[in-house]
Amino acid sequence: MEQKSPKYIFVTGGVVSSLGKGVAAASLGALLQSRGYTVHARKFDPYLNIDPGAMSPLQHGEVYVTTDGHETDLDLGYYERFLGVKLTRNDSVSGGRIYWDVLNAERRGEYGGGTVQMIPHVSNKIKEYISAPTGTDFVICEIGGTVGDIEGKIFLESARQFAFDIGRRNVMFVHLTLAPYLEKSGELKTKPTQMSTRALLENGIQADMLIVRAARMFDMAEREKIGMFCNLPARNVISGIDVDNIYQIPMVYEEQNVFAIMAEHFGLDNKPGDMSRFERIEKYLSNGLPSVTVGVVGKYFATPDSYKSLNEALLHAGIVNGVHVNIRKIDVKNFSPDQMMGLDGILMPGDFDDDIDNAQVAAAGYARANKIPYLGIGAGMRAIADAGSVKKCDRRIGSHVCKLCDGTLARKIYADNMVSERHKHRCGISAEFAKDGLWVSARSQSDDFAEIIEASDHPFFVATLFHPEYSSSPYTGHVLFNAFICAAKEK
Fold first, then answer.
1. What are the beta bridge partners of residue 440?
2. Coil, strand, or helix at residue 79?
3. Which element (helix H / strand E) includes 308?
4. 30: helix, coil or strand?
5. Has this prediction a pTM greater than 0.85?
6. CA distance 280 to 276
7. Which one, of 260, 365, 349, 358, lies nearest residue 313 by Cα?
8. Which helix H or strand E contains 454, and what residues bound it?
9. Is the distance from CB of 450 to CB of 428 less than 8 angstroms?
10. Burial level of 150, CB count in 10 A (0-12/13-18/19+)?
11. SS3 state of residue 348
12. What is the tens place of the pLDDT at every residue in 5-18?
């Protein structure tokens, strides 16, 4: 069967970092999906690390894990959650990985002894990753960093070349910028957006659409001003206003006719979309529902995105259970039992290191003694075990099969005897573990490790070796998180 040629959308950023390019890219994909198109997503990070796996959460935020065992930028989590797709190691590519590939190819003699240069060798390698087959109608490629970063120039050059190679009407460039608000004068300043778009143009790329982060919607005069200075029709200037929740962003784009802009560029039918998935979330967010309070006992709260997938999984479970989930951050470095008062559930996430703090052991013990629903992940499992039962192992990462034992809460929750979950760990607990009413309710396929431990004397006391948060969806949640929030709601 002939491979169909997808169309491409490149999402770039300017002015400052952390404007939300990943959410913007995922939201554009969601609009395309709402019209029946299939979508794939990729992230290109110019930094020189081979991947983010060795980066501290305090430096880079959460490290996301794909099913095939690749540690990636957290933006891949946005793509998978918004779009309901499974991505792979070829969908998160760093500058370090590109140079590694090129230099290894040179050592193998693949360039015939010629001089290895940024163009064409590095740019061609980047284009290989951009164009890797997906079998979808669209591929959305986010380029990390901001326009003007020295390490990002070759990625912009590669995108420019790629658009030239396959035809400009098959590629759309969306540029995300910032319009600062000056409170004293009550003005939204557009000059940073103008300069950023000009810097992009200096790299040979004319933006086809601007998404400008701003404190309020632009009026038509402001859109016309930005459009005039940036070579764009006013209708292609989109107000990227702040929202209470990221899942409202597709609706904000829909109201500003973003799909119509994409349809005009690519020659698509401008047909209405099915936005019911996001309308359901909008309704949940606006309803006056009861709430539960979950204490998250962790180490990395100094960086907001350290527990991104975890926070999202709690929100998703709240949607499924019809409750709002309030998160109380409990830092193990400043732990006090008083912080546990009034909690409806306690969640202990995984750690970047293998050390278990006494505060983590105390928090897990408090949850068990006071019959508070408890969900432990990775470190949250080790915190309930004795030190002698924890053993080092070869690093396990990506999806692995777990065997669930009959007659257990885990078996009831999953309604299956074999499941696949994503792992990221260097140590585990023996599959023969048993202690004071704690017992193994799921084993690894090899029977070496405990995959789930639960307590027989507790309404919900479950700890996992794997990371269920990576598989949660805003549309369905994840069965373990759903059950955990259900138990918190009942409490």
1. 453
2. helix
3. helix 308-321
4. helix
5. yes
6. 6
7. 349
8. strand 450-455
9. yes
10. exposed
11. strand
12. 999 999 999 999 88
Residue 368, classed as helix, strand or coil, is helix
pLDDT band at 47 (very low <50, low <70, confident <90, very high): very high
Taking CA atoms, 273 is separated from 240, 279, 324, in Å, by 20, 12, 28
How far apart are alpha carbons 9 and 250 in whole angstroms?
Answer: 16
Distance between CA 455 and CA 464 in Å, rounded? 12
The whole-angstrom separation of Cα 136 and Cα 168 is: 19
Segment holding 426, helix H or strand E: strand 418-429
pLDDT of 353 reads 67
* Tokens 């034992």 -> residue: 405
- Distance separating alpha carbons of residues 387 and 389, to the nearest angstrom: 6
With CA atoms as reference, report the closest residue to 158 among 49, 379, 8: 8
User: How far is it, in rounded angstroms, from Cα 180 to Cα 159?
Assistant: 28
β-bridge pairing 374-377 and 461-464:
parallel
Report d(CA 491, CA 480) in Å as an integer. Answer: 17
Amino acid sitting at position 147: V
Nearest in space to 339 (alpha carbons), one of 366, 309, 358: 366
